[in-house]
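Hi all, long-time lurker, first post. I run a small reading group and we've been trying to get comfortable going from sequence to structure in the token notation. Rather than ask abstract questions, I figured I'd post a concrete chain and ask someone more experienced to write out its structure so we can walk through it together at our next meeting. Sequence below, copied exactly:
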Amino acid sequence: MSKPAPQHEQEALTLALAEVRDLQRTVVALRSELEGAQHDYQRRVQDAVAATHNDLQQMRDTATALRDALELARSERELAVTQAVATGQAEILQLRATVSRLREDLENAHLEKGESLQKAASGHRDELVQLHDTIRVLRGQLEERAAAASGS
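-- Answer (accepted) --
Happy to help. Here is the structure in token form:
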């Protein structure tokens, strides 16, 4: 059979067993702390991934909104240009019609003035012919009176 262990060995064994239990408790505590740290780390990674995903989605939404705004501005600019061109063309047509009408009015006024001048010139010629005829008649009468006065 085995011999009883000396007291000193018994105390050393008790101390060794107590130290092993302390080490086991430390291992359990460290394992628990490590698992908590790993859990915290995974949660922070997941939070960071979620935040990055949210930021990325916001950037995509912003890019889409900016693209839409840019497209709307381009469409509005094209519409404004088209309207300006149409307005300009309508104004050109109106101005051409006005120029044509003014040209016709000027030509008509020129023709009327020419006709008026011709009528006035014709009237002056008629008056001149009439005055010459009157002068001839009066001269003839004067000559007859002068001849009658000298012969009488």
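A couple of things your group might point at:
The radius of gyration is 64 Å.
The CA atoms of residues 58 and 64 lie 10 Å apart.
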